[in-house]
Design a protein that fits this description.
The protein has about 300 residues and is α+β, with helices and mostly antiparallel strands. It has helices at about 5-25, 30-35, 105-145, 150-190, and strands at about 60-65, 70-75, 80-85, 90, 95-100, 195, 200-205, 210-215, 220-225, 230-235, 245-250, 255-265, 275-285, 295-300. It contains four helices and 14 strands.
């Protein structure tokens, strides 16, 4: 058996003494950090931020309109004799806008009225004659019953009275025809007066004095100033959400900071199957302020309203 030298034995003892220290130094820094207690002054982690509420509102745009808005057309051929209103003028129902030359119509109407008066006089004369002949016939009837006149004299009085009654009917029909002619000319005279069909504002004037116009030509464009309305189209998901009478917010592109209230006045009872939408209409509540027909408006539909 061979013994180690004393020098080798000393080296072995030195290595055994160093092993524990090396083992401790090789531990992971993460493990050491995990084992270390948290500082007493550290705060707990903040909770996550709350999720903002989802905005389910829906906006649609379209022009403001009014129910009464139309072109005033010429009802007969003629020449503009006088203009009574200009663009921008406010008018009331039946206000005179323009006058066509009515001289020929007035002359024809006066002739028709004279003819009517003449026939009325003729009718009165024939009615008086008829009463006289009827009286003669009544007397002849009594004389015939008393056998005082011949049959020929009796029948002569009878047929003369009947003939006069036919003349009265004929003149009555002539009078009726004359009155209808007179009424027709009165209507033609009315057509020479161009009047406002409703209260509103004259938006445009298409004619000038002295201009020849034909039946159906545009003369004026008259529009009412209210109530202002807007027609819109929304997806079918709003069926049951929108109700007639519901109030919604409405703004105008030219006045973005001003919101007006609008009331739902009409909702379509059907959904368009091709687009999955339905129509509705709102009406501006209260004074319209700067709003005017034709302005582009934006309607905000909020299911929470």
């Amino acid at each position: 058996m061979q013994f180690r030298k004393p020098k080798d034995f000393a080296l072995i003892l030195l290595g055994a003494a160093l092993l524990p220290g090396l083992a401790c130094s090789e531990k992971s820094p993460d493990v050491a950090a995990a084992a270390a207690p948290a500082p007493s002054g550290a705060s707990a982690p903040a909770p996550p931020a709350s999720i903002p509420a989802i905005d389910n509102s829906f906006t649609v745009s379209g022009p403001l309109t009014v129910e009464h808005q139309l072109d005033v057309l010429a009802q007969r051929d003629g020449v503009i004799a006088e203009l009574k209103s200009e663009a921008g003028a406010r008018v009331q129902t039946d206000d005179l806008l323009a006058q066509l030359d009515d001289r020929q119509v007035v002359a024809d109407l006066e002739a028709a009225r004279a003819k009517t008066r003449s026939i009325e006089a003729d009718l009165k004369a024939w009615e008086s004659e008829a009463r006289v002949l009827q009286s003669d016939f009544d007397r002849a009837q009594k004389m015939w019953d008393a056998h005082l006149i011949t049959r020929e004299a009796f029948e002569h009085a009878k047929y003369k009275a009947e003939a006069d009654q036919f003349d009265v009917q004929r003149v009555s029909e002539l009078l009726l025809n004359a009155k209808e002619t007179q009424r027709s000319l009165e209507l033609e005279l009315d057509k020479t007066q161009i009047r406002a069909p409703f209260s509103g504002i004259v938006a445009r004037r298409y004619v000038r004095e002295g201009q020849q116009v034909a039946k159906g030509d545009r003369l004026f464009w008259v529009t009412a100033e209210g109530p202002l309305r807007m027609r819109f189209t929304v997806p079918e998901k709003f069926v049951g959400v929108l109700k007639v009478g519901q109030q919604l917010g409405l703004t105008v592109s030219d006045f973005p900071g001003q919101e007006h209230k609008a009331r739902v006045v009409e909702l379509s009872p059907i959904v368009d199957p091709t687009s999955g939408t339905f129509d509705g209409m709102v009406e501006v509540i209260g004074a319209s302020g700067p709003l005017r027909p034709g302005m582009n408006s934006i309607l905000r539909i909020d299911p929470r309203q």
